[in-house]
Design brief:
With about 325 residues, the protein is of the alpha/beta class. The protein contains eleven helices and 16 strands. The longest helix is centred in the last third of the chain and has 16 residues. The structure holds threonylcarbamoyladenylate and magnesium ion.
Length: about 325
């Protein structure tokens, strides 16, 4: 299959994407978090193509993207007040709500579960597409199963080129980490996957504490130990072990640094070494900028001929929970 690359700045690009989606084909679409691999959520045959293209097990449910909070009741039943409060506070945006599914929602979408994950995405192109198609779009991240999520159209093409009808290029994703998933079915809301909306953000809206169910039986990526993995082995390491090991390693290394002081020390070590290659990427200090570059850094290094990626552990404060969650799962 030839994968069309569509420019989201043109009317043709948007219309063509809408036409393909309405015809039951797959289109990778930009969202503010990561690219999604979209299909018409009401069409079970279209949804099945997502699992085939990604190589994803069919019991792994998909997020349904809707155009506004008003659509919750078309997809979910017994929706608690908390869901509306959170939707009003954080939608459109990087928050996914887990609810009880409406009976008519195809089981393919929810991986056979009786729950449904809903999100109103904030990316202007995605919003236009939802309005133009008048569809809800089921979309997991647009990467091969268990590989690093895509934050640019070319990342999508690396994994899914030739397997899907089109990629709607909307430039790099601003946030770069997948949405927070919150189970709001019970009185006590639970975070199932850490993301850009923190437990504190949720608490400040609901006025009640939120737990993080990291050990749970609900099938989310927060629950899978292997995920977001580059082909090159990734090791998350302290600054000290990076310095020590760099002196003696005979391997070709991709180094991802956090502290600027380490960069100077690493440069001195590399300067004295001969023979093997070290590729260095310095990431920003500020969390949101760091997160926006995290996946693209892994994609970039994974395209080089190197033996290992060594990544300096970033801070471990609550603000960094989503970043650390993804890095832990991506590492060897
Ligand atoms: O930011 C995001 O959430 C991106 C963009 C494209 O919206 N999407 C995304 O989708 O990360 P995906 O499929 O890669 O991760 C969604 C996670 C999966 O781990 C899935 O198991 C979980 O959400 N999920 C979806 N529906 C669910 C359900 N009914 N019950 C439990 N978990 C569910
Ligand atoms: Mg994913």
């Amino acid at each position: 299959m030839n994968t069309e690359i569509l420019d989201s700045n043109t009317l043709y690009g948007l219309r063509r994407a809408a036409e393909l989606l309405k015809a039951g084909d797959l289109v990778a679409v930009p969202t503010e978090t990561v690219y999604g691999l979209a299909a018409n959520a009401s069409d079970s045959d279209a949804v099945k193509k997502i699992f085939a293209a990604k190589g994803r097990p069919s019991d792994h449910p998909l997020i349904v993207h809707i155009s506004s909070i008003r659509e919750i009741s078309n997809w979910a039943v017994n929706v608690p007040e908390q869901a509306y409060l959170l939707g009003e506070a954080f939608w459109p945006g990087p928050l996914t709500l887990l609810l009880e599914k409406a009976p008519w929602v195809p089981m393919e979408v929810t991986g056979g579960h009786h729950t449904i994950a809903l999100r109103v995405p904030a990316h202007p192109i995605m919003q236009k597409l939802l309005l133009l198609t008048e569809l809800a779009l089921a979309a997991p991240s647009a990467n091969l199963y268990q590989y690093v999520s895509a934050t640019t159209a070319s990342h999508v093409y690396r994994g899914l080129g030739g397997k899907i009808h089109a990629i709607l290029d909307g430039g790099p994703c601003a946030i770069g980490v997948e949405s927070t998933i919150v189970d709001v079915r019970n009185q006590q809301p639970h975070i199932l996957r850490f993301g850009p909306i923190t437990a504190n953000d949720i608490k400040s809206v609901l006025g009640q504490s939120v737990s993080s169910l990291l050990e749970h039986n609900i099938a989310t990526s927060g629950n899978k130990k292997v995920h977001y993995k580059p082909n090159t082995p990734l090791y998350v390491m302290s600054a000290d072990s990076i310095k020590k090991k760099l002196i003696t390693t005979p391997e070709k290394i991709g180094l991802v640094l956090y502290s600027p002081a380490l960069l100077t020390e690493v440069k001195n070590i590399i300067h004295k070494k001969t023979g093997n290659h070290v590729f260095v990427i310095q990431l920003p200090q500020e969390k949101t900028s760091y997160a926006a570059m995290m996946y693209s850094t892994l994609h970039e290094l994974d395209m080089l001929d190197i033996d290992n990626i060594w990544l300096e552990s970033p801070p471990t404060t609550d603000e960094w929970l989503d970043v650390n969650d993804r890095l832990t799962k991506a590492s060897t």
